[in-house]
Design a protein that fits this description.
The structure is a homotetramer of 343-residue chains. Chain A is of the alpha/beta class and 343 residues long. In chain A, 36% of the residues lie in helices and 17% in strands. Chain A has helices spanning 53-61, 81-95, 114-125, 142-148, 155-158, 180-191, 226-239, 270-274, 279-299, 303-308, 315-321, 326-336, and strands at residues 2-9, 14-20, 33-39, 65-70, 102-112, 132-136, 166-171, 196-201, 242-243, 246-247. Chain A is globular, with a radius of gyration of 23 Å. Chains in contact: A-B, A-D, B-C, C-D. At the A-B interface, helix 6, strand 8 and helix 7 of A face helix 6, strand 8 and helix 7 of B.
């Protein structure tokens, strides 16, 4: 392990702490590791130590290369300095990916409160997008963003098709950043079909960080500390898990379906495909007729309603249940991928 | 322990299974127990066994008196029969509270999918409201309600000031009940200031019940089974915990603040109180001036913004931080409770 | 689900409660289930309710068919009545295996305190041995057995080669059954090469049962309640896990190695095989020479000590590391299985 | 946070890595922190990196000042060099307790395999004893100690009245350090009345370290990774928990009772006190008579056996149950503390 302190911008006192773990040798076939960039909170007035090292330890323990980004705050916080420093960090990581042993397509960000605003802005607007974002009691909507620093983007309004999967957590009784900030962000992710996980705890107020007893003294409900292990498990679902034999495959994709991709596929939902016209309609007509016939045969008069219950199933899942051979599915998929998606 | 099967309505085949545990004796000072009513899912076409007994065992283990409500489904499901059967269950529990050893102000409902619709309807519209509701991948908005059974209420539109605290869980990739159903219900609870806890898991699809390996075969992420223990801990926060010495105190109230009560109090938020006019303004003028002066003395020019960051603090919490003596707070509280709330 | 009360012996008031869950239908390909027999404690003076139903709920939830055995106690407790009633229970289960949907080679026992004495006696001496035993703060050695009821066997002295795998738990500060009872039983299991898992918690005293807050009021350390979930996971390791597709394979065998079997095999440890003379020595001479040569080539002078560090490795594991082809290992295994074991 | 590398002995290449966290400021009233010294394993041939930093992260996250001791190994491992280096570490910590913000009466050691031998030797024989020891699949008995390095002490034979509380963990199927090493150490701790916690997992082999997926590739049962969080909770029981308001009180003492102290007290067990003669007998005669009379009154003929069941109760606990006033207990305690203990 080595720890490096890197000055990103001396005039703004923006700094990066890199906690780099070894690879190979005792670590077997681990040649590179996934990484995480930590953005502490502090209303853009400061960068909280309580949301820096204690958080770093958790992801270091899980095998990540960890970076603590102490972005410009206080008098130096003028937008877009903090975001620039994030971009600079990503460029540095790409540059040093060999020296630092980093899988550059497995880089997460985690931000708390105002740091969550920065992390969400990175996830929704940055040139170098992260591959996953963890947002803790984050400042995400207009009201709280403006309060922190007028002139910044409002993450809830910036979610787009390229936004990475997100892990959200907050306490219902947050009395600094209204929990509606997180609720609205969930809704925005849902609208774009982005995958996410979200935990709103009954109570825990604001700023609990890892919720270790030595870190937090606000009343918290017993579930609050779970976000740490849960977020690590979730990252494993999104990135795959680091093992001495290398990374395993992800267990979850970044999108709910292919409904918002440029072309169609069997990973589109039935409901979405049913609304397509033209070539798609032609290609799918027989398939749909066959599925409808099968359902009617099994359920009779109920069939109409029943198919409404599977509108959100992906075509491939329905075809699998219907016992359609894999090669037929593949041929269909190839055909659909030639057809532009009418979103 | 004794198990009773009670026919609620023979023509509709609506049945109640009561699993009643003993009290006193080896159970010390436990004279009565909290209770939970389970409403299995099944699109109002059936009542799933997988969401009945296996769920009952979890809450029985935690010390609850448990009722499985097999409400009218299929051809008998005409609204409001299922809700009537819930009301009937509550009347029965009230009637037999001594025989069944039940704390009638500590009755929760738990419902899955269509059962979640019924539980949420009970929580938002019933004559006999439950004291807490657990809603699992529940059908809560217009689209899915209409699909289940036209003519029923839409829970997301029914949330009111009397709605009990709720515990919500669902999977992001639910392909039967769109997860937006749960998202919209969160939003509705937030708007009314109702306390809740919510867990949206990355993936787990629909109908995982307790997510025990013998119950579920869909792919689920590792966090899904946590809802069982988490919901029990949450009920403990809302109701207090059953111990051989009796129930402990709840650790969490049913509302975010007193902002929606009939009269004001020190449990209203600062932001809400600042908007009050007339008598309230008069009573609070000196208090606010004093708080503002204190902040300005400590933070100077930042003070204006700073006070915006505490708008969601309850007055009593701010007064505590400011070191105002408890008796002053109590006097103020008494005065505020005389003043009607301008919502 | 159905619950049956069966009188095993009216004169001794010995009773069996069977909690039988459904199979097939919504439970998919589950045709039979594993089972567990619960033996509450009570110094053979009584059968504690606190160690009966609340324990049953945990294993019912995990999918087991559950039996609560209220064996002869008090004036009727004369040995071997309680053990007879256990045998009777096993005969009944075998008889009714179809009606009760039970996998008769996946039957566990769990006993607490004096019930742990009975469960351990079943595991070590019964005609119908269980397939796994869970022993909670159990009375297992001479001193405590004699105190409960003179004339009974002492489980620590009865462990034999046929003893099933065991899961032990107790609190270090047990002031009723000295924790040395559990320590001695661990030692006895180790001596016979039986697999086990054991958790001695820092404090929790005696009789905590599931350690739910409504069950226990003694001071317990935070780990105590873990035994419930841990024991269920451990049963899954020993029996395989029940899923809608049927039982999975066990992940752990009942013995440390084949060192105590009638004949040799590649599942014997290297150290054990090295002590064999005659035919075994002849068969293994070349294998050992080859392994030794390989080690010396890699490690030189250290080789002597190094091979001492692998005495407890099974021969098959060493051969795998050494890259010996699977068919050679199988041929060797076949040859060894012809040779009687010199224990 | 700062990290310091300290050369303890250049000729033997013995090194100490200190990971020192900040205090006060954002950490509130935390002025000093508890500490832990990590001793990686490696058969005294090396110090495994897998049992160094990854372990450090876990305790750093929990708020501890962490030291990794890379003691003399390989050609430099001659005994007692490694133990000397431990003593040197403790002296350094004492010297720098202010600079490093360390509570010098809350220092734990954790050792794995051969490092567990060193940690246990520290716990049982060192000049500067630690206050708690965590021993992972540790080499503790004669056989494995001699194999590692002849001439070293055997920890199982060194346990004494001053040995600190221990937390033990190992896998039943350990094929390098026979699990009997841990079993024997449990027994030795029990004999001296030392408090301990112990987890023997069904399987996990040897050297799993934190059992994170990136660290370990041996098959492990699901419970293995729990030792990390469990050991931290246990340290909290022994030391108290670090909070922003300072350390809380320990919840568990280092001894089962006062039975092995120099003088008697009400913290001695009933059984031990009953065996005392002379002055103690005189002082306690009336108390015992009173207790016996009370029991006989309640239970009649059973009373004789009943009192045997409470032999391990501390006198103060029995007196409390019997309703003896606190001031009487205190007077008795003061009297007993004047009387030498006949061990």
């Amino acid at each position: 392990m080595k720890i490096q302190e890197i000055m990103l911008d001396e005039s703004r006192n923006a700094k990066l702490t890199a906690i780099i773990q070894d690879v190979e040798g005792e670590y077997g076939n681990i040649k590179k590791r996934p990484a995480i960039i930590i953005m502490p909170g502090g209303a853009y007035w400061g960068c909280s130590d309580r949301e820096a090292e204690p958080v770093a330890f958790a992801y270091s323990k899980a095998g990540y290369q960890v970076f603590i980004l102490r972005y410009a705050v206080g008098e130096h916080r003028g937008w877009p300095y903090p975001l620039d420093e994030y971009e600079q960090t990503m460029e540095l990581i790409n540059e040093k990916q060999d020296e630092w042993h980093i899988l550059t397509d497995k880089i997460a960000v985690i931000g708390f409160s105002a740091g969550g605003h920065l992390a969400a802005t990175a996830a929704t607007t940055a040139k170098h997008r992260p591959n996953a974002a963890i947002l803790g009691y984050a400042a995400l909507n207009k009201e709280i963003s403006d309060l922190c620093q007028p002139g910044m983007p409002y993450p809830v309004e910036e979610v787009d098709d390229e936004t990475c999967p997100c892990f959200l957590f907050a306490a219902r009784d947050d009395n600094v950043v209204d929990v509606c900030s997180t609720l609205q962000f969930q809704q925005a992710l849902w609208e774009k079909g982005i995958m996410f996980e979200s935990h709103i705890y009954a109570y825990g107020q604001h700023g609990f960080s890892t919720a270790e007893p030595h870190i937090n003294s606000n009343p918290i409900c017993s579930r609050v500390p779970n976000w740490v292990a849960d977020s690590i498990a979730w990252l494993g679902d999104m990135f795959g898990t680091l093992t001495p034999a290398g990374m395993t495959e992800p267990t979850c994709g970044p999108k709910f379906s292919d409904d918002r991709e440029a072309t169609l596929s069997v990973d589109c939902t039935l409901g979405h495909l049913k609304k397509q016209t033209g070539m798609a309609e032609l290609v799918l007509k027989d398939v749909f007729a066959q599925l409808q016939a099968g359902v009617e045969q099994m359920y009779g008069p109920l069939a109409e309603t029943l198919t409404d219950f599977v509108k959100l199933f992906k075509l491939k899942d329905i075809l699998k249940i219907a016992g359609i051979p894999q090669e037929v599915v593949e041929t269909l998929d190839a055909a659909l991928k030639q057809i532009p998606n009418q979103k």
